[in-house]
Design goal:
With 249 residues, the chain is of the alpha+beta class. Helices cover 29% and strands 30% of the residues. The strands form six sheets. The chain has a six-stranded antiparallel β-sheet with strand order 13-14-6-5-12-15, with no helix packed on it. The protein has a three-stranded antiparallel β-sheet with strand order 9-10-11, with no helix packed on it. It starts with a helix and ends with a helix.
Length: 249
């Protein structure tokens, strides 16, 4: 009976973690460049260990948390500093503790002309340097399909400023989720130059969270959690009855 109680408890904890993950996805459904977070489960005991040590009763837990990097819809904004990647790749940023990667392209320019993310992280060029955009009176910023940044003067004469670093990651399972839609590389992962992409100026990639699918998973997880909770209550009731019977004798 104890094994069954712990099995139900393990299931309830796993579902509680799943519900928290789904809630985070739904909370970021309108976050630019957000990538859907997924979880997978595993059995704690396997083979003979399950049969001999737990009497066939198993325990489950969350095995991995990983991200769905399928593209989100692209929305036009007309802001010249908004950029979306159509295809493979990530923008490269300088984070507090090293290089970060993101698909979120709602960039800004600070008072020094430094190109940054919306929360102030510097955007990097293909050489790994920060990008400074010169102040040209009456000029415009233009972004090429390859990520090259140009300044256009009043006569539309162009001057190259820098080329955005658009990189891809061979094994995306080794991307660790950080804050604000950014990712870092885990040990053993490496970046490569992305070839299959196009930078679209004046557009943003939206979250790839499917609200209908997440709501269905949330309802299903709540039902399973409630079932585990009922099982735990039943075990508690049985334990109380056993204790009462023990005192009669």
């Amino acid at each position: 009976m104890v094994s069954g109680k712990y099995s139900a408890l393990a299931g309830a904890i796993s579902r509680e973690q799943t519900i928290a993950n789904i809630s985070a996805n739904l909370a970021n459904i309108n976050t630019t460049g957000y990538k859907n977070s997924l979880v997978s489960f595993e059995s704690v005991l396997r083979g003979k260990q399950q049969a001999n040590e737990a009497g066939g009763i198993n325990y489950n837990r969350i095995k991995n948390s990983f991200s769905d990097f399928s593209p989100g819809a692209i929305r036009q904004t007309e802001d010249p500093l908004d950029m979306a990647i159509n295809g493979d790749g990530f923008f490269k940023l300088r984070g507090p503790n090293g290089v970060l990667y993101t698909r979120r392209g709602d960039f800004a320019m600070n008072g020094d002309g430094l190109l940054t993310t919306s929360n102030g992280l510097p955007v990097l060029d293909e050489r790994g340097a920060e990008i400074f955009i010169p102040d040209i009176d009456g000029g415009k910023i233009a972004i090429g399909d390859d990520g090259m940044i140009y300044m256009l003067d009043r006569e539309d004469n162009s001057e190259e400023v820098a080329k955005l670093a658009i990189v891809d990651i061979r094994d995306k399972l080794k991307l660790k989720r950080e804050q604000d839609t950014t990712f870092s590389l885990q040990n053993g992962a490496a970046e490569t130059n992305s070839e299959n992409y196009r930078v679209i100026q004046g557009n943003l990639e939206l979250s790839n969270v499917n609200m209908s699918a997440e709501m269905a998973k949330l309802i299903d997880s709540h039902r399973i959690f409630e079932t585990y909770h009922k099982v735990l209550k039943s075990y508690s009731a049985i334990t109380e009855q056993q204790e009462e019977l023990g005192t009669v004798a």
